[in-house]
Structures are given as structure tokens and as C-alpha cells.
Design goal:
Blueprint: H1 7-21, H2 36-74, H3 77-101, H4 115-124, E1 128-129, H5 147-152, H6 161-177, H7 179-184, E2 190-194, H8 201-212, E3 215-218, H9 221-224, H10 230-247, E4 251-255, H11 280-287, E5 294-300, H12 308-314, E6 317-320, H13 326-334
Parallel strand pairs: 2-5, 2-6, 3-4, 4-5
Antiparallel strand pairs: 1-3
């Protein structure tokens, strides 16, 4: 198991406390006023760093002037010009190679529009939706007290509702709510909530958004049916979702019945064109970088009805939501 990227920060903070604050007597500092000497020491280092930059610049200028004076005295001015000409040719070649090596950036389909107008358009189209304010602690459920006993009997227990709350916090709420955590924690781009009807899949999506203040984009096939038609329209839809999602981060892209996108055979009665996003959804996931606080969250009751390989290729983490056990039901009755 690799070491967590948060360990060096914790060790550094612990060392700072041990070296500076552990043995300091703060009994007469009830108002917790700042320490003058500590502030002076920190500012002294900042001033030294700034002065060093200025001094280095002046020294470099003096060195250049001296070098030019020596070369002028020795009569090597012409040779220097010839060399600089050669260098100029090389630099042009270097620029050409650099241009060749550059990858073509993604084209902005809406360069002249303001973020507010894009946001309003997605709200008007029903892609950005509101959600009820639900807290994670409202997902009431107990820890599995029989888990250890079952494992000792070589029986893997079902995950408890307490386990679900912990995993939802670690994979979704903390990375979405904190940019620092998002940059250092393992990058989870997508999560699939799996479970039977009525176990709280949509409730947990609402809880993620409530706890982090996220913008919710609903890309459920039934919701986007008839909107942004055609290949160009779909390209524009995903462009808007990605662009607005970055500007109004954190953002959650929600897909209900996520398995429908990867069904092997679409029922004739389903007119929502669920396979519309099958090719473009993996591209959207691939585009998400470590700096983007955007998370794709799907929910599914029947994941095995789809192409499981394609489904799990899009959704990195699959979280099973169990039915409430006896302890969880008892706890709900009490609340």
C-alpha cells in the first residue's frame, strides 16, 4: 500500500508544533495575540528572498556590462555578431520543432459567450437542476456488528450503511468540497451507486451536492431526450456541461439508470435513445484532470443487464447500497 500524500503535511505540522509551540508557556496569552518575534522572523525571510532577486538582477547586469567592455577592448565584437547570427538560426529551428511538438488544443465552441449566459441556457434546458437539501447524516444506518464474526467463518458480509457513508465521504464529499484534498487524494472521476429501489441512491446524490454546494447536471437519457439533437448538438451539450462545470465547480454530473447507456439490446418501447452518450461519455471522463472538481455519479438497479465491461470502464468506483438491516431499521424507528 502506497503512502498517503497527506502524510508529509501532517509530519511537517507535527514537527512545527513540537519545535515551536509544545514547550511555550501561553498561560498569560488568554486572547491568543500574535507573537511579535515570530512574525518578524517570518517577514525577515520574505524580505531577504525579495532582496535576493533584486540583487541577483543587478549583479547580472553588471556582469554583462563588464563582459561587453572586455570583448570590445579585445576587438571581438564582429565574431560575437556572427555567433549570435548562428544562434538565431538555431532558435528559429527550435521554435519550428516546438510548434510541431505542440498538441492541438480543444476548440472552444462558445468563445464569445459569458459564463452567466451559458449557465442560464443549461438551466432553461433543464440540464442544470435544483436538488432538495439533504445531509449525509440523514442517511441513517448502523455499523455491521456481525461483520467480524462472519469473516471468521469465511463469509464476506454485506456492506453496512455506515460503510456506505464512510465511502461516500472519502470518494465524493471530501475531494469535491476541498481543492487541496482533490489535488492530493487519489483522483476519482466517476462513481456508480448500485442497489435495489428505495435504498437511497438519489438521496445520496443530493447529499453529495448539499454537503459540497455543488452544481448538479442531469444527463439522464430521459432528461436530455430531444434536447441538443444531432451529433453537433450532443457535442455542444457536453462542451457546455464541461465548461460550466469547471467554472461553477464543484460540479456533479448525474445519470439515473446508468446501465441503460450500455444495454446490449434497447427495448422498442424506450424512446429516450439511452445509447446516445455511449461513445462520448468515456471521452468526457478522460478529459477530466486532477484540477477539475467534477464528478460523474450514476445510479443503477440492474447493472448486470448492461455490458458490464463497458460500464465499469466509465465508472471507476462501484458502491453497493444494501437494504437496511435490523439495527438500521431500529435506528430509523427511534429517530
Amino acid at each position: 500500500m502506497t503512502e498517503s500524500q497527506f502524510v508529509p503535511d501532517i509530519v511537517s505540522a507535527s514537527k512545527l508544533y513540537t519545535d515551536v509551540w509544545q514547550r511555550r508557556d501561553e498561560s498569560d496569552n488568554l486572547r491568543q495575540a500574535y507573537d511579535v518575534e515570530t512574525v518578524k522572523e517570518e517577514k525577515r525571510l520574505e524580505v531577504e528572498a525579495e532582496l535576493r532577486v533584486h540583487v541577483d538582477t543587478l549583479m547580472q547586469e553588471e556582469l554583462d556590462n563588464l563582459q561587453m567592455a572586455v570583448e570590445r577592448d579585445k576587438g571581438k565584437k564582429g565574431k560575437k555578431g556572427g555567433k549570435s547570427g548562428k544562434k538565431g538560426k538555431k532558435s528559429k529551428k527550435g521554435k519550428k520543432n516546438a510548434k510541431k511538438g505542440k498538441k492541438k488544443g480543444e476548440k472552444d465552441l462558445t468563445p464569445d459567450r459569458t459564463p452567466e449566459s451559458l449557465f442560464k441556457e443549461l438551466v432553461a434546458e433543464g440540464v442544470i437542476v435544483d436538488y432538495p437539501r439533504v445531509r449525509l447524516h440523514d442517511y441513517v444506518g448502523e455499523y455491521s456488528y456481525l461483520g467480524t464474526t462472519l469473516r471468521q467463518a469465511n463469509i464476506e458480509p454485506m456492506p453496512s450503511m455506515s460503510d456506505v457513508r464512510r465511502v461516500i465521504t472519502e470518494y465524493t464529499i471530501l475531494p469535491l468540497g476541498s481543492q487541496a484534498v482533490h489535488e492530493k487524494a487519489p483522483h476519482v472521476k466517476s462513481v456508480l451507486l448500485v442497489g435495489p429501489e428505495g435504498v437511497g441512491k438519489r438521496m445520496l446524490v443530493n447529499a453529495m451536492c448539499t454537503e459540497t454546494g455543488a452544481t448538479l447536471f442531469d444527463l439522464t437519457p430521459e432528461n436530455i431526450c430531444g434536447k441538443y439533437p444531432g451529433k453537433k448538438g450532443l457535442e455542444m451539450l457536453l462542451h457546455l456541461v464541461y465548461k460550466v462545470g469547471k467554472l461553477y465547480a464543484p460540479s456533479v454530473i448525474y445519470m439515473q439508470n446508468a446501465e441503460k447507456t450500455f444495454l446490449k439490446k434497447i427495448p422498442k418501447t424506450d424512446l429516450s435513445d439511452p445509447k446516445r452518450l455511449k461513445k462520448d461519455l468515456p471521452r468526457l471522463i478522460k478529459k477530466l484532470s486532477q484540477e477539475d472538481r467534477i464528478l460523474l455519479v450514476g445510479t443503477s438497479q440492474l447493472p448486470f443487464d448492461s455490458d458490464v465491461k463497458a460500464l465499469t470502464a466509465v465508472y471507476q468506483k462501484v458502491i453497493l447500497l444494501p437494504r437496511p438491516d435490523y439495527a438500521s431499521r431500529y435506528g430509523r424507528l427511534e429517530t
